[in-house]
Amino acid sequence: MPDYITTYQSIQNECKTLTNGNPPTLIAVSKTKPYEVVREAYLQGIREFGENYIPEAIEKFTKLREEFPDADTSVNVHHIGPVQSGTLRKLFGVFSYTHGVGSFSSLHELLKRAEKEKKKIRYFLQTNLTGENTKHGFSLQTLLENKTNLASQQNEFCVWEGFMGMGPSSGDLMETTEVFTKLKNFREEHFPGLKLSMGMSGDYTLAVGLGSNYVRIGSKIFGEREYGAHSV
């Protein structure tokens, strides 16, 4: 099997250099990869995984926890796709984080479901700073208009971790830098205690340099996706 951990640690070390020894949480995005890849990555020491497709993640990580009981407490699975009201109930029990809460209806449903399930999850509000119709999420103006109420949008089981932002689908690094900088400045001015989830395989060094607390790396660790287009 490929040596995933060496690449993972190499990226971690790069992030340490960029942050003077205070690197972000590095999420190894294993979506579309088979269970054997996740299993090997776990055996090599990776403990933070990112998944998009809920049924696929449930199958892989239920199997991992059955085979390796320690994984139940040592592994964090991050949901990195859009949160949809109709399917978010399936997040609980598998995912520790969800990075794609992009509407108030989904947020309110997540909060209610967390109290019902009595299982903990931490969430990020997804922002859309590029204006692309293919991306969902909040505008900064909407977040600012609801600033007073946002702090109360959590409970014993569902905790607001911060904001998630993505660069343009084109991958243009100049525009990506503008997007990441805008989100960083917004967080620092209005929500200084919260964290940022920014950066993927093609732009993580920009994100880390701008203070991202979580980066999502897929293709650099596991190779290109099995299907789909946009590399993480």
Automatic annotation (TrEMBL):
It comes from Leptospira yanagawae. NCBIfam families: YggS family pyridoxal phosphate-dependent enzyme. Residues 15-225 form the Alanine racemase N-terminal domain. Coiled coil: none annotated. Pfam families: Ala_racemase_N (PF01168). PANTHER family: PROLINE SYNTHETASE CO-TRANSCRIBED BACTERIAL HOMOLOG PROTEIN, PYRIDOXAL PHOSPHATE HOMEOSTASIS PROTEIN. This is YggS family pyridoxal phosphate-dependent enzyme. Belongs to the pyridoxal phosphate-binding protein YggS/PROSC family. Keywords: Pyridoxal phosphate. Gene3D superfamilies: Alanine racemase. InterPro entries: Ala_racemase_N, PLP-binding_barrel, PyrdxlP_homeostasis. Transmembrane segments: none annotated.
